[in-house]
Fold each of these.
Amino acid sequence: MDTTNDAERRGTLLHAAYAAADVREMERPLLDDGVPLMRMAANAVAHTAAAMLDDEDVDVEDAVVTLFAGAGDNGGDGLFAAAMLAEEGAQVNAVAVGRSLHDEGFAALVRAGGKILVLDPSAEIPGCASGFTPGEAGERLHAAVDVARRSHLVIDAMTGIGLTGALRGIPAAVAASLGVPAADGRGDLVSPLPDRPALPDREGDDGLPLVLAVDTPSGVGVDDGSLTGAYIPADATVMFGAMKPCAMLPPATFACGRLTLVDFGFDLDGVEPAAEAVDRDLAAGAIRLPRVDDAKYSRGVVGLVTGSARYPGAAVLTTRAAARTNVGMVRYLGPERAQDMVLAALPEAVLGKGHVQSWVVGSGVPDNDGDPELRDIQRETIAALLAHYSTDDEGSAAMPPVVVDAGALDLLPDHVPSQVVLTPHAGELARMLGVSTAEVACEPLRFAREAQTATGATVLLKGPATIVVGDGGHTFVAGAGPAWLGTAGAGDVLAGLTGALLAQTGTADPDPELVAETVASAAYLHGSAAAIASESEQRGWQEPELFGMRGRSRRFHTLGHPIVASDVIGAIPDALADALS
Ligand SMILES: NC(=O)C1=CN([C@@H]2O[C@H](COP(=O)(O)OP(=O)(O)OC[C@H]3O[C@@H](n4cnc5c(N)ncnc54)[C@H](O)[C@@H]3O)[C@@H](O)[C@H]2O)[C@@H](O)CC1
């Protein structure tokens, strides 16, 4: 990414996430120059820990802190940070989960008066017991978890970007006891996340301790945001150098808690991010400003084949949402009852076929429900339209963008160009790929990418933070919406809004990257409209704070109130205005 000035650098740091391997590459020249990165990292962790204790009205000198330290540099960061807290008077218990500890960090903590408990019988840590029986190892594990639960703060420095696969061995056992067990140990729960309300403060006791994660929460999929193994959910994470994908991608982003990013001064120029978060600027770029000589046709026309006799409301929601999203006209095709309802709710709608710059199909249209013989007029219309998008069809590249939602997903030709946009939720994506909804919930990026690769379409996977994967795997996250947005019809609104933004790009055979950006912008504006409608400051994804910079506090104060999908439509113009302001 280009970062020619400070504002651009800041924008990139706050909205781009980089693969662990790229982070290591960016660290190298600084380490070669002797920049004390570990001390800088530890300093930020200690400061954040003190601030968290302060929030709980606990003075550092009265605090009991438990550190879980792995054998790698992540453990080193934690040991130095814990030493700083011990020097300030905190009572620090360090739990070594590996066979060794970072030498200098260990020495610093011992000097500062920290106590060390070893869990691995084969550990070789100077001055610490080892060679104990498996029975005693189990007792030590229980004791460590017990001490942690009774601490004011737990610092999780078991693994950072050096984690390979899911946690194994002692770190896995610690995470399973203290945090959340592996996916296969969670029974038939679909979500890998703890059952906590999306509230500003830690209200209510969910049995989890207050946790500060060092660089990444231990056990999260650093590069793909997955949560398949045991992990420790954090209330706050201090991340070093640059955001890793787990900070941005669901579900791992929700295991990070509040994010603080420490700018090490990496040279970000020319390094491709693994994922980008949509911000106002990107969203503003997807909104076509009216020209003095504009007329309804030049501003974009959206055609919708949505709603059905069974779900006529979806026709109303999609058409109204599209009409509110800065287009010149919406055309509606559907059964008579739905037509009547659309006209009653939106007299501006035009019924029947005609030229369009984008299509929206499938919202509120029944799927085949396991019956391939099902006959439905909407499905037949959609199937005939989608047949033109098959890459076997010579004209497919010149077809206008189409949003394929809900009941139309099973009508998709085998392979399509990237201006075909699929908008499944986790359950629909699971059905498309023949996996379970729980699997998609634990590894949404993996399955969104699989769907993109398999079909060629741009894939928008709906969720509290929405993932968009475009041609070539280009990945965006949009998380402007509060949890109040999970309400019937919200997906219909998103489909209409997305179709309308795509109509504004205006060209057949559009640049695949532009399609992905536009679609991600639609998800952002949808969330932003919901935030406005619900008057909530809670977000599906919130940018990190930069360590040492005075910024707007990440804490949200206004919880807001419930909304219905129609409220979101009402707020779309304000969301557009907000992006453009
Ligand atoms: N490179 C640097 O100089 C800097 C690195 N920093 C820290 O160093 C971390 C990376 O350090 P490392 O490369 O040593 O790696 P980590 O410390 O993240 O992880 C390595 C440790 O995790 C264990 N481990 C790996 N996979 C596991 C699994 N599946 N189950 C259980 N244990 C597992 C390994 O046995 C090893 O003990 C960063 O995340 C960051 O915290 C910071 O100090 C800043 C500077």
Amino acid sequence: MTFPILPIFGKDIDNVLIDKPFLKLAGQAVLDASEFATDADILAAAKKCSNNFKSISIFLDSVEQFNEKELINILNNGVDKIYSIKQITFESIPPSRLVSNIPTGLARADDMSLDAFSEAVLSKLKSDRKDGLYTTLVVDEAERCLGLVYSSKESIALAIKKERGIYFSRSRNEIWEKGATSGNTQKLISVDLDCDSDALKFIVGQDGVGFCHLETESCFGNFSYGLVELEKTLLNRLSNAVEGSYTRRLFSDEELLNAKIKEEAEELVEAKGKDEISWEAADLFYFIMTKLVSCGVSLKDVENNLNMKNLKITRRKGDAKPKFLKKKEDSIVEKKLKIDTSKDEPVFLQVVESSDIEGVQGAVTRPIQKTSEIMHLVQPIIENVKTNGDKALLEYTEKFDGVKLTSTCIEAPIPEEYFEGLTDEMKNSLDLSIENVRKFHAAQLQEEPMVVETQPGVVCSRFPRPIERVGLYIPGGTAILPSTALMLGVPAQVAGCKEIVFASPPCKSDGKISPEVAYVASKVGASKIVLAGGAQAVAAMAYGTESVPKVDKILGPGNQFVTAAKMHVQNDTQALCSIDMPAGPSEVLVVADEDADEDFVASDLLSQAEHGIDSQVILVGVNLSKAKIDRIQQAVHSQALELPRLEIVRKCITHSTIILCKSYQEAIEMSNKYAPEHLILQINNANDYVKLVDNAGSIFVGAYTPESCGDYSSGTNHTLPTYGYARQYSGCNTSTFQKFITAQSITPEGLDKIGRAVMCIAKVEGLDGHRNAVKIRMNKLGLLPKV
Ligand SMILES: NC(=O)c1ccc[n+]([C@@H]2O[C@H](COP(=O)([O-])OP(=O)(O)OC[C@H]3O[C@@H](n4cnc5c(N)ncnc54)[C@H](O)[C@@H]3O)[C@@H](O)[C@H]2O)c1
Ligand SMILES: N[C@H](CO)Cc1c[nH]c[nH+]1
Ligand SMILES: [Zn+2]
């Protein structure tokens, strides 16, 4: 702050500013404390000043006028400095804030004339230019540069007098009032001198289209779209937004706006990585700015507040309020479960009645990010891999998986070192699982063509062909999944795919793939293992790179980045690549009745909860008593505490629920609506209810059928549709690795049977070429009457 005048105000500050508005241009003010009785009076005056001045200080004759606590209070509430002739030092007050030397330029505001004010500025200025002018930087209220101009002593005096942007035009050699002809005028807000007093800074409020004669906001073009521009847009929308628009809805529905702020804040909390965090933060800023504008609070007000907080000399401890650290229902549940929470925070599921429509809606909402948001994050990754191939792949592996590799793939035959550490027990377990999966998938293989004679002489057939080159994604972010390798590799082999490529993120510690995944890869005849994960692995297989072959279909589960990338490439005709299904974060819905074993129920819920924080587990209870619910919650809690992935489980459980139904029928309907990846029936006569299931990836029937068996060894596939896609997708099966070709063969007799129908329909479609292809043949066969 180098303005040469520091006006000192007494109690009558308002009237003085009405009489002498030019004083505001100093941008700084001092309050004479001798005119105020208490620290509260000083702060009230300082608050009033804060609208007009960037900096406010206090002048004390004697520091003893206030005690230490009061001085701290003054400095903690936006006062920059306390000037005091008689000095005392306090340990808790920095010497830079309690100053004994009286600043230069201090002058009584009520005695100050306009001429004296201008003269004080002009006498301080020196010009280093031949024409005697002063370089003047013009900035807006957010201190964004509008342009560079020149001022003369006369133009400065006039600018101060009229409080407008008035400069000296070198081209016209005359005083120039900005906007006098264009209407793009400027209100002068404050004037600063630079460190050696040879240049000025005018802070102005710019009216009209902007500062530049080319009608841009600044002489350097328009400003980029940051918070200041967002504020302008929203202010504009506040007065002009069309009825029915989203912004209008937000302005008029406070509850919706507040809910969006909470929602975006939560998404920001959960966001990871620079891109995702900046994306979520931008969303949050949007809703916050909407709230500010709708409440008449400006960005400047917020900045003033930040400034004030920055001046605090004592700070609060900053702990979060308990309600944000613990779930609201904790206390009830603690009582109910009688859990010693001092040792272990309870792991419990929310409970809702099926009649609570909103509660159920919340319970069955999957904790996933909007596809559009994830797409925005994966698209640049895909484009980069498409353009830069292996180089980009290696860079992303270093960035996301923390491994610096020199080559992207392991080629078959996989070198021995990759199998190190594989025990016989593990090999036998994998062999048993592979065999069961092979049996079940081989049984699905249709080898003979299907032949149907639809009319005498019209033979239609259909036969399968393997998809030639398949890319199998084996997740490896939070857990290494050799079971997924076999669930995908075995049916690919059974179907007869010619090239099987595996992709999986490499292990952080040694940059390798797990020996179990390597073992399965060699058993199913994979030609390569791409050491990469996420969107980058999907892109590499979809488009091919120098080392990764382009495949025809990509299969396999993965997190939201993997799923979004699969969906992107399948929509890109350039990739010419299909996918199996959106198989995202694991989920389970367990239907249990009063007779279900609570330990079994809890273990099934936890087995999927441990997959990832974005997994979801739901228990649909049929006529469960309160005591039963408590026992299930207790079992979930005590089993969870023993799990190594407890922290993941805890997060998953925060969006997992028990829904209470009144009948088996209602429970199955609830499940059909949710369309779970896995449905577990732990109810009496479970088999009888299978026929009522319309939507589910895979069903586990009866108390002794844990979902884990399907995950590993029984024979069914564990790559299954999630997000509710079980409504329209099947889980992975042998036909997922095949396509079907149809063929037909027609004899003259057959042509006689269907030819007229073909001609008739072709005619109505206006496709005479089609009609002719039949007509010519039928004519030659003498099947049509001569005309
Ligand atoms: N539906 C099914 O059939 C099925 C089967 C098995 C597993 N799953 C699910 O698969 C998922 C596996 O997820 P995972 O994370 O453990 O492994 P993953 O291999 O799917 O994902 C790990 C990769 O994600 C990428 N990634 C991580 N953070 C990123 C970021 N901020 N930006 C861009 N990329 C990023 C990295 O490249 C990393 O290699 C789990 O949700 C699990 O529930 C589903
Ligand atoms: N349950 C997962 C599918 O949602 C598959 C899996 C692999 N390993 C253990 N489980
Ligand atoms: Zn599982």
